Amino acid sequence: MKISLLADCPQDVEVIATWYFQQWESKKQNASVTTVVEKVRLGLNRDCIPIAFVAHIDEEPVGAGELKYRELLEYPGYCYWLDGIYVPQKHRGKGLSTRLIEFAKSKAIELKLPALYLRCEDHNVKLYENRGFQVIETEQSKFIMELRFS
Predict the structure, then answer these.
(1) Which residues lie below 8 Å from residue 64, measured CB to CB, with a gap of 6+?
(2) What is the per-residue pLDDT for 71?
(3) Are the C-beta atoms of 91 and 77 separated by less than 8 Å?
(4) Whole-angstrom Cα distance, residue 95 to residue 83?
(5) How buried is residue 93: exposed, middle or buried, by Cβ count under 10 Å (0-12/13-18/19+)?
(6) Alpha carbon distance 48, 45 (integer Å)
(7) Confidence band (pLDDT; 50, 70, 90) for 150?
(8) Would you call 64 helix, strand, or coil by DSSP?
(9) Which of 34, 36, 38, 42 is nearest to 6 (CA)?
(10) Is the predicted pLDDT of residue 144 greater than 90, yes or no?
(11) Alpha helices in the chain (DSSP H)
(12) Residue 62 pLDDT > 90, yes or no?
């Protein structure tokens, strides 16, 4: 498995946007794959946020994630977010999420970010705790987690 910046694999934008649409955005009014493609394209950067990344096995995209700035405006003190960690069902259970999270952490350290935040559901808390994140807030059925680098 290889993880690359999406900037080096722009041909995968539509695949990732389709995953994100099916998993999250389809539940939102006025969302479409086209609007998600536009959002994913914002991450076609190498050295500044937002940065998107993609995992491949034998050239097939098998997972993705993003580092974003101020993803949730209701949390203005939390600047840098890990978002969109996604692995299609047929590739789950292979450790891909862990590898994507570790890649994001490495990139955050490279960019000298002070901390990363994320929002997840209960069933993902342990995954992120095992990668060094801690729950700092709860919001209905979601958990806000933090990983400090300093």
Answers:
(1) 6, 12, 16, 19, 20, 52, 53, 54, 55, 84, 85, 86, 100
(2) 87
(3) no
(4) 17
(5) exposed
(6) 6
(7) confident
(8) strand
(9) 42
(10) yes
(11) 13-23, 33-41, 96-110, 125-129
(12) yes
